[in-house]
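Notebook p. 47: complex prediction with adenosine-5'-diphosphate.
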Amino acid sequence: MKNVIDQFPFAGETVFCEPYGSGHINDTYRVVTDLGAQYILQRINTYVFPDVKGLMDNIAAVTAYLGARVETPREAMTLIPTKRGEHYLTDEQGGCWRAYPFIESSVCLQRVEQPADFYECGLAFGRFQDMMTDFPAGTLNETIPDFHNTPSRYEKFKRAIAADRMGRAGSVREEIEFALSLEEEAGRLQRMRRSDELPTRVTHNDTKINNVLLDRYSHKALCVIDLDTVMPGLAAYDFGDSIRFGAATAAEDETDLSRMRLDVGLFEAFSRGFLQACRSLTPQEIETLPFGAFTMTLECGVRFLTDDLEGDHYFKIKHERHNLERCRTQFTLAADIRRHLPKLKQIVACCAQREPERGEPRVPARN
Ligand code: ADP
Ligand code: GN1
Ligand code: MG
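Predicted complex, structure tokens below:
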């Protein structure tokens, strides 16, 4: 580890370096020096992200762009280049490392404790979306191609059913049928994207609440982190994935499905924050936000089920059929969101109207 730390221009001598946070993808460490400086050092997961250069070029471009648009450094991530001036370091074992200043007095929540916190998360993701409106989306590398392309997720799912590598398909007939019965609906956003009914924007694509930093004391939003999946996408992806995770009444792997439903109050809190901060959405984009919550939840369930059928290679599991348990919560939640859609549309429309100075929507330029 010392060899790695020595390659970054940290202020002072390292006092300690400890594993930090509870991310599921990268290995994260906090480095503290004798001058009291703190840094985040991360080993990038190269199984999930094989194109590290493409990934880090994205992060360098996005952090520079956001950094130039915020008022204080705590409102944006800043990349610290290596002493050789590179965006990341490749160590002798082929591990890839990057560093950021540690954002002081921040907290990152694993689940929503208060509606006000989720409102703040809505502000953070809404601001991110808004600030990125004029960023040329076409210059970003697709770090995971077709990440939220739901029809292509379905194609992969159907290949996994046909191959039935683990001999599990027979035990998940009901789940397979549920997913397939919604395939047509699940592809709606993608069809709208392809026909340019919805503009392609720069989106974060992994908008769980633990990818937002709040001020430790005031719980006001500071910034969004974990920019690995920033790619061209739809506003409804980011809105939807936040709702999927943050407005659910149970954990992603809850086994008592009667506990899993949508918390409409939390949906409202997030919508208020998101739409207050993001003034650049078209009326059609606004209208599709609740549908994004349904689509992202169903898609996530399909991804978990695919991984279960393929033998659990992608998502880390803690026990046998963990991905099946996760799939079931997502399908239960997707069905509940779907039932609530008319009400959710009203809430979103109401939150959108609440913004009096809403100007003309700024649609990103085609590129
Ligand atoms: P993963 O992709 O594994 O989820 P993240 O980039 O989200 O990794 O980082 C993991 C955790 O590290 C976060 O949940 C957060 O607690 C913490 N963290 C990351 N970057 C910073 C930062 N710049 N300042 C403070 N904490 C951070
Ligand atoms: C993964 O790493 P984490 O837990 O933030 C996944 C998301 C899924 C999520 C489900 C790069 O995110 O797309 O929605 O699990 N990230 C990647 O919990 O695939
Ligand atoms: Mg994270």
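Notes: Residues 2-104 form a domain with the Phosphorylase Kinase; domain 1 fold (CATH 3.30.200.20). The chain is about 45% helix and 10% strand.
Next step: compare against the earlier run before touching the bench.
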